[in-house]
């Protein structure tokens, strides 16, 4: 090899490492330790791999080497002890040429088979040279936004996606692409009344339609029925959660990890309650057991927030578990049930049925239960920002008052249009079409990933939502870590969300860093089918380049 070719290869290798370091530099502070752990693990493996072995032997040992799964595993991994003069608390010295070269060998094209493609240094979120009195310029991005920002640095354009596959955005396909679904409106009537401010609790017609839908769908056998006074219309799920956070006070609020990333910002902004994170167990497939909830109630928790079905794992409580949960909490605890995925429910044969806490509320004005849902997911209209909260009249009155100073209420014209959507039989037919379509997409990506060597059982196949919580721990090298996998996906024009963003740590409790999900990414099968194909093809190319595809790629 000529010296010029050798120098060019070395430059590309350096660029590849620098690119990864740039990516790591954009993480929120609490997560940067995750990237450092990845670098440590890669470095440890590199140092323990003899440099004199043949290419085939190196390839074989790389695939078979055990992969650390959590932060504590990185620092107790046997090969780490082989680094002379290092201790478990030492930060990797990336300026040391020997250490740096070992990292380069693991991150560069010599391992993954692609040319290095350095990107511009990510720009600061704000211009640091301009003085901004009293502005918090250090607010980190949420997981989906961070992933999208990084993809944009690689050329992604959300308004012209081209050949990108965005499997990170938590939104369903919104076009007329679901067989059997009613056509989405392309024009709407704007009644004169909609030119006025809508009430902060929403227009009465839509509130009545929501109450009627829940009564006819979940409460036909109950004496207590919802009325419009039990419904508050809100401009999106986040706005609904923010209103709820503003009206609760002087309590411990428990929430379970992993869960919806935007909970973190909501729980960190308000100081009128104390949020208590409860990490779920990987070996238990992150299931939320009733015994765990009982323990939370025993230690004085009087508010509980959870998504059901759950984001990002794609699972939900079974009906009998949901019934027990309500019986446990009825006298002592406010249940805040985020049910935006309640109609993406596949356990009932895709009949259009759904699961909701509304079925287990005994008295709508006594049971302390707040239910959030809306047009965003089930009706595939995220841009309309029309959602609702159901609950006792006293809570709804307080939520309406909060809306007057927090968000001003929902879009009035869209509220009038939404009334017609909520006819119970129309909803049932719509959800049947939705479930058949999205279950077929779920089955497609599980089939593709299974063929690539990912393991699925009845326990970890999602029975709801349109998310897959994908375990990477069997993969070699940097692919076993969510940030490394994300980095390689960007080179294949595929967007996923690293699992550690689903750590909800509103008070930045350092001991929770060990609960970060290093070995998981969330994949959304919300997009249209051709995007799923591109995404699976991209992941297949990554595994092929790393030599860990269990079959010959055609």
Automatic annotation (TrEMBL):
According to the UniProt record, where is the region Disordered?
1-21, 45-69
Among the GO biological process terms of this entry, one is:
amino acid metabolic process
Source superkingdom: Eukaryota
CDD domains noted in UniProt: AAT_like
Instruction: Write out the transmembrane intervals.
Output: none
Mark out the compositionally biased spans (Low complexity): 45-55
User: Per the similarity annotation, which family is this?
Assistant: Belongs to the class-I pyridoxal-phosphate-dependent aminotransferase family.
Q: What is this protein called?
A: Aminotransferase class I/classII large domain-containing protein
